[in-house]
Amino acid sequence: MSNLQTIELKHPLPAGTFPETCTALGFFDGVHRGHEEVIKRAVAAADEKGMTPAVMTFFPHPKEVLRNAEAEYLTTLEDKKERLEMLGVEILYLVQFDTSFASLTPQQFVDRFIIDLNIKHVVAGFDYTYGHKGKGTMDSFPFHARGLVETTTVEAFRECDEKISSTAVRTALKNGEINKVSHYLGRHYTVKGKVVQGEKRGRTIGFPTANVEPPLKVLLPSAGVYAVMVEKGNETYCGVANIGVKPTFHQDSTEKTLEVYFLDFSEDIYGEVLKVEFIERLRGETKFASVEELISQIDRDVENARSVLRDS
Prior knowledge:
By secondary structure, the chain is an alpha/beta fold. Helices cover 30% and strands 29% of the residues. The longest helix has 21 residues, at 291-311. It is elongated.
């Protein structure tokens, strides 16, 4: 049972009584190592001050509302909540990001969504902005808070002069740099999805696969073949995942699919939810001249995956 209390909010904020909190502010997509630093600072400050550790985030992504552009999410809300709870957060303020909320001035945001929520200490990244057109910054926050809220600003999280950000994670995923993604996140990238009916072509060539339907708008790694670990219920299995359009069989398809071949497991699991954890990219997607060539390559992929997963 989750210990994280989720409080859904929207503008205008209803009247209510809220506990004193130290709250981390941000969208926190992916909850990467930079995000974790912000959240851990808030949890530590809350513990020191005897307050409740909290996070305020927003949904949907602002660009979906302000630019009518489709967002590519690194984490679902469910996964984000799970990660926040693991980091010690007790309250999640989930604010509905709409045009009404986006039109608040920086002062209105601080008055209504910080002071009125009884938030006594705010922790955010150096680049956090708030209010209409993001005109409020962490430099201006003390002015808008009028001495009623303490602030902690966390500088960019860098390693080897490289800033770790959600954009950097997305770029690495799209480039197939799965090891870099794991480094940025501090854990392996995962995608949860239900097993749905596929073409069943894999079983005709000796490699039956589970066709996993990822959540809407969640970003898949680039097309290719990956060594993966798969959680099914309380069990974990080794596997090989293929992401792509299967060019050996499809000439013009552009719709990417996620298929998983279990190395040592073969049961009917339609309708079950799998958690696919990407360990290492084995190769890119290739169009083969024949089905026989494809089968030979899959045999090699399986052996490579066994080696990778044995050593990981």
